[in-house]
Amino acid sequence: MRVLVLVKYTPDLVSDRAFAADGTVDRAAVDGNLSELDEYAVEQALQIAEKGSDVEVTYLTMGPAEATGALRKALSMGGDKGIHVLDDSLHGSDYLSTSLVLAEAIKKAGFDLVITGMASTDGNGGVISAMLAERLGVSQVTLAGEILSVDDSSVTIRRDGDLASMTITGALPAVVSVTDQTGEARYPSFRGIMAAKNKPVETWSLADLGVDAELVGLAGAGTSVESADRRPPRTAGEIVTDDGDGGIKAADFLVSNKLV
Amino acid sequence: MAEVLVLVDHIDGSVRKPTFELLTLANRIGEPSAVFLGAGYSEDARKTLADHGAEKVYVVDSADVTDYLVAPSAEALAAVVAQSSPAAVLLVSSQDGKEIAARLAVKTNSGLITDATDVEASDKGPVATASAFAASWKVSSVATSGTPIITVKPNSADVTEVAGAGTEVRVDVSFSDLAKSAKVSDVRPRAASGRPDLGEASIVVSGGRGLGGAENFAVVEALADALGGAVGASRAAVDAGWYPHPFQVGQTGKTVSPQVYIAVGISGAIQHRAGMQTSKNIIAINKDNEAPIFELADLGIVGDLFKVVPQLTEEIIKRKS
Ligand SMILES: Cc1cc2nc3c(=O)[nH]c(=O)nc-3n(C[C@H](O)[C@H](O)[C@H](O)COP(=O)(O)OP(=O)(O)OC[C@H]3O[C@@H](n4cnc5c(N)ncnc54)[C@H](O)[C@@H]3O)c2cc1C
Count H helices, E strands: chain A? Predict the structure, then answer.
């Protein structure tokens, strides 16, 4: 079985993340890493590989040169190889164009199962997996809180919806996304980190995928950022130490601000 | 004026409040029409949609929409879009809403904007405002291709009642085999808590690891009940099994923006802040005076939650009576 895990290189959460003048995420300003939410996807893929026989795990990323960092991190956790879609014209791609490029790369790589995180930690959209299922014309089996079973023909998950929890079963090939409820990801071992250095990573350009550059990047985006502004930071208000009347002070605050 | 489609969020035909918020927003940018998918449609549903401004109510009455995940809903909505050529499509930013929007965007090659907290008309079409980077930024965008498709967070608009004609339009959709490729089974609805919905409540009281155990969530629940609010939890509390996941507030849980957010025994990690930072008033109760949650609190009480919270609860009950 060919398992393809999508990984994204995203700015560090605790750094001072910002938008550049063109309305795109300013990647130069901050350090990045493999998106934490993709680590859960890597973990689930590796568990499938450990349980099954003849499972090949490939990581796919799209992003600037430093995005290989996400591939190397994933490869240090396990898996077989990486694919990096790298092309200057991709800068500024939105959901439509990102899903277009990823879908073409997935087709070129070949797959039985695509696994993604529930959302990226920077854009937080959570829409790419559904878009990929639509583009690829395969089953959408998304937002798994648990992967219940996978075999050569189907995948079954538990999806914890807003109003109900349910079981979803889809035929392979399928796109699966996993939430942070699926269980903590393993840490790379020293051996894993060393081994990752020798695992193959291919770089593909848009031309390799046969995608027209006009369909991607800022030029091809279906949305345009009109303005991006930093919110004034929340300023700390009054901090009091409880001297036996902390609860009464809180009640005073609520009443005097007409909040109750 | 061009139609603006609103996908109705409902439970077995009972329309949920975010739908009315979307109709209100749709009214700002065009003529609202509601799209009702799935079983449970009734005259009551039509009337309540009309009372909130829906000129037309498109109905695709089919069990396939609930028997299979997301894809049939996207096909049905696409059929209504093809028939009505709307100026925009608005959906609730729920798990399903976002994924339906995602597939619709691909089907119609349209610009997709997620998690908007406001939508306004402009000469470039609807402008959607959303938060980014744990709500530290505000971004406004427009769609430049196809039909603008916008998912909107609950609580983003005050509901207004305006009469619409509410003309019922039945739409027949025959679903593709592909739309029926992911089967839904064993659906277990969540037990109702009797409290307001977390995403919609004007007061939220959340508990964290500081509670020390599932049984101590009673302290948080008692305060929420005294205030008529909802209960939330940090991921640490959810991971420990003290409170169910649907109540998690934060990056991988719910985003809330209530009038009052009370954080009890929560340190204020960036992933938690992402879900509550835009609350109008924040009260934090924590025994560690260096807890980062105090950086955003309008009122911070440094103290033991087991003393402060019951006292606050008692005081609220006393003052309310
Ligand atoms: C990918 C990812 C996604 C995440 N998503 C989320 C998310 O959606 N939501 C979320 O909340 N977290 C999320 N987290 C986890 C987050 O990083 C923190 O670990 C979590 O928020 C901590 O929860 P806490 O504040 O309850 O616990 P802690 O950080 O342990 O804080 C407990 C606090 O309780 C205080 N305390 C203890 N006893 C008392 C007492 N008796 N009285 C008063 N105060 C007391 C302590 O001083 C401390 O500040 C995520 C993490 C990752 C990696």
Answer: 8, 13
A226/B141 Cβ within 8 A: yes
Which residues numbered 54-73 in A keep a CB inside 8 Å of some CB on B?
Answer: none
Please give the share of chain A, as a percent, with pLDDT higher than 90. Answer: 85
Are B208 and B265 in contact by the 8 Å Cβ rule? The answer is yes
Ligand 1 pocket test, pick from B217, B219, B234, B309 with the greatest ligand atom count within 8 Å of Cβ, gives: B234
ipTM: 0.96
Which of B146, B187, B312 has its CB closest to that of A250? B312
d(CA B43, CA B38): 15
Q: Which residue puts its alpha carbon closest to atom 18 of ligand 1?
A: B269
pLDDT value at A162 more than 90:
no
Interior/surface letters B291-314, b for 16+ CB within 10 angstroms, e for the rest: bbbbbbbbbbbbbebbbbbebbbb
Q: Which residues of A touch B316 (CB under 8 A)?
A: 251, 254, 260
- CA B135–ligand 1 middle distance (angstroms): 18
Number of domains composing chain A: 1
A112 in a domain, yes or no? yes
Q: Is residue A232 part of a domain?
A: no
The residue range of the domain holding A194 is: 2-220
Write down the pLDDT at residue B51: 98
Q: Please check the confidence at residue A39 and state whether its pLDDT lies above 80.
A: yes
Q: Judging by beta carbons within 10 Å of its beta carbon (0-12, 13-18, 19+), is residue B199 exposed, middle or buried? A: buried
**Closest C-alpha among B196, B193, B218, B195 to residue B207:** B218
Q: A198 to chain B nearest CA, in Å?
A: 34
Calculate the average pLDDT of chain A.
95
Examine residue A239 and state whether it is found in any structural domain, yes or no.
no
- How far, in Å, CA of B174 to CA of B78, rounded? 12
CB A179 within 8 A of CB A144: yes
Q: Is the pLDDT of residue A194 over 80?
A: yes
Look at residue A13 in the predicted model and tell me its pLDDT: 83
What residues in chain B have per-residue pLDDT under 50? none
- Would you call the peptide bond into B189 cis, given omega within 30 degrees of 0 as the criterion? no
Find out whether B214 and B243 touch, Cβ atoms under 8 Å. yes
Q: Does A34 fall in a domain?
A: yes
Residue of A nearest to B260 (CA): A259
Kindly state the tokens that stand for A175. Answer: 């796109």
Q: What is the pLDDT of residues A118-144, one digit of tens each?
A: 999 988 999 999 999 999 999 999 999
The burial class, CB within 10 Å (0-12 / 13-18 / 19+), for B202 is middle
**Domain harbouring A8, CATH code:** 3.40.50.620
- Phi first, then psi, for residue B315 (nearest 5°) are -65, -40
